[in-house]
Amino acid sequence: MQETREAPVRVPQPLVVQVAPEGDPQILGLPVFVLGSMALGLNLLDYVSAGGSVVPIIFAATGLGLLVATGWAARLGQTFVAGVFGIFAAFWLSYSALLLGLFHNWYAIPAEDVAGTIRLFLLSWASLIFLLTVASLRLPLAYPLVIGLVDAALIIVFLAWVGDAPPNTDLLKVGGVVVMAFATIGAFAFLSVASVSLGGRGYPLGPTLVK
Amino acid sequence: MQETRGAVPQPLVVQPAAADPAVLGLGVFVLGSIVLGLNLVDYVNPGGSVLAIISAGTGLFLLLVTLWCTRLGQTYLAAVFGIFSAFWLTYSALLLGLFHNWYAIPPEGVLDTIRAFLIAWSILLFLLTVSALRLPVAFPILFGMIDLAVVIVTFAYLADPPDTDLLKVGGYVVFAFAALGAYAFLGAASASLGGRGYPLGPPLVK
User: Fold this and answer.
1) Where is pLDDT greater, at B10 or B25?
2) A172-191 burial string, b = 16+ CB within 10 Å, else e?
3) Cα–Cα distance, A106 to A86 (Å, whole number)
4) CA A95 to CA A126: how far, in whole Å?
5) How far apart are CA A189 and CA A205, in angstroms?
6) ipTM confidence score
7) Is residue A20 within 8 Å of residue B14, measured between CB atoms?
8) Best mutation site among A13, A120, A130, A150 for testing chain B: the one with the most B CBs within 10 Å?
9) pTM for the full model?
């Protein structure tokens, strides 16, 4: 009789299921966004008039913090959240680069073209944030509202810079009020995310406009 | 009876689904294109006016998106975003270097430097356009229009001083591909939130 003994099969059997670490990147992204917005709002409201007063916060906290939140969201597979945080990180970092570049003449822009350069920056960002507002209509109302208010603030500040420098300070203050408004909604969303992360209930963020 | 002696049990790790880098990548690409288009159509004249956005916004974030694609194993997408990141970063380096004379280029060599930069990029973008023919038609059209804009700006710089009318034509082509990029951005964003992606056409080569 032929011996048909089989070779030992060594199949590793899963014994433990490890779920990859999750977490919600909004818990970091929203507060640093609110922080940068408050610094910008206070600047536009002329609490401190020097534009450079916002740079430490918007560069080292908001810009870099949103960059970290972007990587976190990407790692979790949250495409749109990563897109939003990444775009806002780009906004704050490029705003820092604009201010630093203008202060130190890195970009060789003549004095008479500084206002035009600021308008160019604001108009380009207003265009992209408009697209982002449209793209966010599938989210709860609070999110397109925040992004739409960001766009409104950019357009108002752009209008304040239309014409010869110096800019229209009254319009800048209106822009500052709009910035404070979206910072407030962002703060509300942050508290909601924080509540959920600690086992509580999320706050109502409204219905979605597009389903 | 099966012998399993010596087998090491491996934990099963459940990973979240991969995120799509295209939403961020297309968004910052559109941003850089808008600011470049506005500069070329002479909304603001100094070339340096675009630098804050194209370096700290578009160039840097396309680099981030490139790394994100490599992590997901998306070879071609990583190459596309990496090449465009290189475009915006080298354009920034060209402008900053010329403004501050980092490259020790004499004034009579500046125009030739710009021409060499544009010619080199137009050749690479042509190759990228050809390589993209297996993608939905929107992408080779997008790359082809970018290449066309670079070629038009190259011709503008053959004149001394540069031909501003041709630069404006280049600016309008930039706006056209920015619009196409915006359409692809909205499609990717819609898909990421559970909606439908927008149609991008069939591939030209199968």
Assistant:
1) B25
2) bbbbbebbbbbbbbbbbbbe
3) 25
4) 13
5) 7
6) 0.88
7) yes
8) A120
9) 0.90
